[in-house]
Amino acid sequence: MEDNRTQNRLFKYLIEKSIPVEIYLSTGKRLEGKILSFDNFSVLLEDNGYLYLLYKNNIASVTCGKRFRAAEIEELMK
User: Which residues contact 54 (CB under 8 A, 6 or more apart)?
Assistant: First the structure.
């Protein structure tokens, strides 16, 4: 069965393209790095050799500094 959840498609794309992200936690703390993996409950983030296991229920938002072209957005939303 294909996984069509938007967050999963985005996380897979960010991992595949090795795009750096900023993750804001519900506490207001900001973390930067690259997403290495994720599952239904957590995200594994790497920043300068440090690993952070983040629980999704504590993540407020995920952003990246990359501008996406229309073709990339279409690929992401497939």
Answer: 23, 25, 31, 42, 43, 44, 45
* The total number of residues written for the chain in this structure: 78
d(CA 11, CA 8): 5
Domains and CATH numbers, the chain: 6-76 (2.30.30.100)
Give phi and psi for 41, each to the nearest 5: -120, -15
* Residues 14, 7 contacting (CB under 8 angstroms): no
- How far is 18 from 33, CA to CA, in rounded Å? 10
- Reported as a single tens digit per residue, the pLDDT across 47-76 is 999 999 999 999 999 998 777 777 777 777
For residue 4, give the amino acid letter.
N
Residue 68 DSSP one-character state: P
The rounded distance, in Å, linking the Cα atoms of 31 and 26 is: 12
